[in-house]
């Protein structure tokens, strides 16, 4: 489906309420990708984000700094499927850094591909001192503290494995109907964010790049139905209780020695190029709850473009009333480049737009 042109609901207020970086005081970024999924790390020039904890900072950014999300994520500097990370002051004493995640719709609560990239970045840019052969980087996310273990060999960073927040199956085998009446079944899993997770075979469609448009529209319809029919809750905070997206899989949850492929469509119909770290955590939680994977057993998860993460159940846990797991997810991020961004006074279009 084409994406409408948008400069955000506050466009008429930009002249008086919002300020933008200038050539003499730009926002600087480093771009990375994990399995093809972009991450724009804002390294300087972004305003301080007040708040007593990470969720308060997230709310402040949504309410007061959303014009900068559009400025950094949307065209002409970004694109519809851009993803970003804003580094903020940690509120947890054990955290080495704290992060707010941004995308085409707003602010997510967890992002595994970003954690993998930030693990490398934190060491390479001196936020955490490297220790060979493995360096721990504690990252405070809106969903909680996530521990990343970064491989370091002869001073060079490599693969990153993170341990998730408690992840759990919220609901199993829900019977629902698409707007046109077609029935389907879905699980609901939490891996730092909530997803509807279901077998695309129900719709006779394979997880391939050629089918992305169809899969994306299908995921959009599924999310609309689930949001209307399934009330979500999280024992830690109401800010975590929302459906982030849908993950359509190849149905190979019980194939121990074979890779399983999925596509994650999240936020405003944004397609993840990676297998989705928080989605892998949620899938592992569901597989464990259904007796399809044992602690310590490795699985390979592939994205729609064929990039992969390794996943396993690291430990059992609890999250309020839910039996939960700590998922372990491993991948590699790469650097793409760096840039400085600013806006000229008469460039209203350059404040950010999206078009499909």
Question: Could you explain how this protein is built, in words?
Answer:
By secondary structure, the chain is of the alpha+beta class. The protein has two domains: 11-163 and 335-351, Roll (Diaminopimelate Epimerase, Chain A, domain 1); 168-329, Diaminopimelate Epimerase, Chain A, domain 1 (Roll), CATH 3.10.310. The protein has six helices and 18 strands. It has an 18-stranded mixed beta sheet that branches. A hairpin with a 2-residue loop joins strand 6 and strand 7.
Feature tags:
356 residues, Diaminopimelate Epimerase, Chain A, domain 1, 2 domains, 18-stranded mixed β-sheet, 19% helix, globular
What layout of secondary structure does this protein have?
Layout: H1 14-17, E1 27-34, E2 37-44, H2 54-64, H3 66-73, E3 84-88, E4 97-102, E5 107-108, H4 112-124, E6 134-141, E7 144-153, E8 156-163, E9 168-177, E10 183-190, E11 194-199, H5 212-229, E12 243-249, E13 260-266, E14 270-271, H6 277-289, E15 298-302, E16 308-319, E17 322-331, E18 333-341
Parallel strand pairs: 2-3, 4-6, 11-12, 13-15
Antiparallel strand pairs: 1-2, 1-18, 3-4, 4-5, 6-7, 7-8, 8-17, 9-10, 10-11, 12-13, 13-14, 15-16, 16-17
């Amino acid at each position: 489906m084409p994406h409408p042109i948008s400069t955000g609901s506050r466009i008429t207020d930009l002249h008086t309420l919002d300020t933008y970086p200038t050539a003499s005081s730009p926002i600087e970024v480093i771009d990375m990708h994990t399995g093809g999924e972009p991450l724009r790390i804002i390294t300087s020039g972004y305003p301080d984000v007040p708040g007593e904890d990470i969720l308060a900072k997230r709310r402040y950014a949504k309410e007061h700094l959303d014009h900068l999300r559009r400025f950094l994520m949307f065209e002409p500097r970004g694109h519809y499927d851009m993803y970003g990370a804003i580094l903020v002051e940690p509120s947890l004493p054990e955290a080495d850094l704290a992060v707010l995640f941004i995308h085409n719709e707003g602010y997510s609560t967890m992002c595994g591909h970003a954690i993998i990239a930030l693990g490398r970045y934190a060491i390479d840019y001196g936020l955490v001192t490297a220790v060979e052969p493995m360096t721990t980087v504690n990252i405070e996310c809106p969903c909680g503290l996530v521990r990343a273990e970064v491989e370091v060999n002869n001073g060079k960073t490599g693969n990153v494995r993170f341990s998730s927040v408690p992840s759990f199956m919220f609901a199993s085998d829900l019977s629902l109907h698409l707007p046109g009446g077609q029935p389907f079944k879905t699980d609901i899993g939490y891996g730092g964010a909530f997803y509807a997770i279901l077998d695309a075979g129900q719709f006779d469609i394979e997880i391939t790049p050629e089918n992305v448009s169809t899969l994306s529209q299908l995921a959009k319809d599924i999310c609309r139905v689930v949001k209307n029919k399934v009330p979500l809750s999280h024992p830690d905070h109401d800010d975590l209780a929302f459906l982030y997206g849908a993950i359509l899989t190849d149905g190979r949850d019980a194939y121990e020695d074979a890779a399983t492929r999925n596509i994650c469509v999240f936020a405003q119909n944004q397609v993840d190029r990676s297998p989705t770290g928080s989605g892998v955590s949620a899938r592992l939680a569901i597989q464990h709850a259904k007796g399809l994977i044992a602690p310590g057993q490795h699985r390979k998860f592939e994205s729609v473009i064929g990039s992969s993460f390794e996943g396993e159940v690291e430990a059992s846990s609890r999250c309020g009333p839910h039996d939960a797991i700590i998922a372990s997810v491993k991948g590699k991020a790469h650097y793409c480049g760096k840039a400085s961004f600013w806006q000229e006074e008469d460039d209203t279009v350059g404040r950010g737009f999206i078009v499909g």
